[in-house]
């Protein structure tokens, strides 16, 4: 979809349809032309009203916040997407202090809102809307700064397209999307974007690296596991970040077999790795100044005669022993080895792991919200604040030492599951903490995206199915860090303060 900015007044722009926001039920702005129809349909400025004869669609939004703009343009375009129209025009809507980010949100909403996954449909619905034209004539009467608006549209397009690519990958079926396929996608990405490098560790190399936890999860599958390392080096060495993603391409639960209704949609258990892959894609295209790595643990948790078993004891890459109490607690085993490998080989300043890790997180926070866990509350808070511009929902979850006791094993260094049904997202995070070295304890975040990664109904800018959870949040977090550095402000990770210049080389940063 092409999104352009026009200096023409809205009335002078030729397009097939017009999209108009009604902000906070204000029915008296200059763009509203259909008061009689409002009375006829008893439309008060909430929801969506499409007037096909007038070629206008009205969308009620709460305010000019980024989330309202993003959701509003998605709702409006979806409402008219089935019509035989190719172009839509709209005025500019932005807060006076946030024109750049407002245009970013508009472009994100347009591209994300029109997404659909139709690969396996014999009759595919064509996406008719090819262009959105935004006039510099604005709702607030204040003209946007064109350079900032265009930059916002560019950034939003890159982030949204990366998110949609993640949706495609997560929606892909398990018979086709195997660990080998994930490795191919990673290698293809490095060929498409020369600034991204790719390294693949196959099962033989994983055995040499003694990744006993990751290998055990995949040992019953005919599709052998892979560890995938993507790296991107921006123009500055101010910050080295590693994103570690859980890439379970299908999760049966293993011998601790999932009930059939819980197994459905487990193709989405690769969402963390896919988010990491596409976050580094967007970071490279945005030319972010940081050094960013993505480490993906790609594996299939199958059942069979070679499956690992409850009561097994595994020796992880870190040499810590793990007593298996539940083979359906496999994601943390994959992450344990991937995290250990990343710390040992990359030596990052900041570690973020991202995974569809626990159903307990969904029970606690609902389908739409992800959890932020870790040992450093300031770092958790920083991620929460800076990622908020993405429109993704997060909640901070804090560890406590009483829960750590529940992971103790009589025969190994740790158990992979607690001996209680309560606090599952926290105990899973505490399991991962065992594999974080002391020097990284305060520089590590764990993101549990089990809720929003795959939802069987449309919500906000998201379709039914894969949402691409985590991609936008990670990229907006990186953008926020860059803004703080450019402004000469401290970021939470104190060991970096000596390394960070007051200005980063990324002159195109969005604030």
From TrEMBL:
Mn(2+) 2 binds at residues 246, 251, 269, 330. Keywords: Aminopeptidase, Cytoplasm, Hydrolase, Manganese, Metal-binding, Protease. Pfam families: Peptidase_M17. Mn(2+) 1 binds at residues 251, 328, 330. Its EC number is 3.4.11.1, 3.4.11.10. It is an enzyme of class 3 (hydrolase). The keyword Manganese applies. Presumably involved in the processing and regular turnover of intracellular proteins. Catalyzes the removal of unsubstituted N-terminal amino acids from various peptides. This is Probable cytosol aminopeptidase. It comes from Candidatus Campylobacter infans. The gene is pepA.
């Amino acid at each position: 979809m092409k999104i352009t900015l026009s200096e023409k007044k809205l009335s002078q722009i030729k397009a097939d349809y017009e999209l108009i926001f009604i902000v906070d039920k204000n029915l008296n702005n200059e763009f509203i032309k259909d008061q009689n129809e409002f009375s006829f349909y008893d439309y008060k400025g909430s929801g969506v009203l499409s007037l096909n004869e007038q070629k206008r669609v009205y969308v009620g939004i709460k305010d000019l916040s980024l989330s309202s703009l993003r959701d509003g343009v998605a709702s409006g375009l979806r409402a008219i997407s089935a019509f035989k129209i190719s172009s839509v025009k709209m005025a500019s809507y932005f807060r006076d202090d946030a024109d750049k980010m407002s245009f970013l949100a508009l472009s994100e909403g347009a591209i994300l809102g029109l997404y659909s996954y139709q690969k396996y449909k014999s009759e595919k619905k064509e996406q008719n809307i090819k262009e959105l034209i935004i006039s510099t004539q604005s709702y607030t009467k204040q003209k946007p700064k064109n350079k900032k608006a265009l930059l916002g549209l560019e950034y939003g397009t890159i982030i949204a397209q990366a998110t949609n690519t993640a949706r495609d990958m997560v929606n892909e079926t398990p018979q086709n999307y195997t660990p080998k396929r994930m490795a191919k996608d990673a290698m293809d990405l490095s060929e498409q974007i020369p600034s991204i490098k790719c390294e693949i560790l196959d099962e033989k190399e994983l055995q040499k690296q003694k990744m006993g936890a990751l290998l055990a999860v995949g040992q019953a599958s005919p599709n052998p596991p892979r560890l995938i390392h993507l790296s991107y080096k921006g123009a500055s060495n101010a910050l080295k970040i590693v994103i570690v993603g859980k890439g379970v391409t299908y999760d049966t639960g293993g011998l601790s077999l999932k009930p059939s209704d819980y197994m459905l949609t487990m193709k989405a258990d690769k969402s963390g790795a896919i988010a990491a892959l596409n976050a580094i894609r967007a970071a490279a295209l945005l030319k972010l100044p940081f050094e960013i790595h993505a480490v993906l643990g790609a594996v299939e948790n199958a059942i069979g005669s070679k499956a690992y078993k409850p009561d097994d004891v595994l020796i992880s890459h870190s040499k810590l022993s793990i007593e298996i109490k539940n083979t359906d607690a496999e994601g943390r085993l994959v992450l344990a080895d991937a995290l250990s490998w990343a710390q040992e080989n990359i030596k990052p300043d900041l570690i973020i792991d991202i995974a569809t890790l626990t159903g307990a997180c969904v029970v606690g926070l609902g389908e739409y919200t992800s959890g932020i866990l870790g040992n450093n509350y300031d770092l958790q808070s920083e991620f929460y604040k800076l990622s908020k511009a993405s429109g993704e929902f997060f909640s901070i979850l804090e560890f406590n030492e009483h829960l750590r006791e529940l992971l103790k094993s009589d025969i190994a260094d740790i158990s992979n599951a607690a001996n209680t049904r309560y606090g599952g997202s926290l105990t899973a995070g505490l399991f991962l903490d065992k594999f974080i070295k002391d020097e990284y304890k305060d520089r590590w975040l764990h993101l549990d995206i089990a809720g929003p990664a795959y939802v069987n109904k449309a919500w906000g800018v998201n379709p039914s199915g894969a949402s691409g959870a985590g991609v936008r949040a990670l990229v907006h977090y990186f953008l926020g860090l860059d803004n703080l550095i450019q402004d000469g402000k401290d970021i939470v990770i104190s060991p970096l303060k000596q390394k960070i210049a007051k200005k980063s080389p990324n002159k195109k940063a969005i604030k």
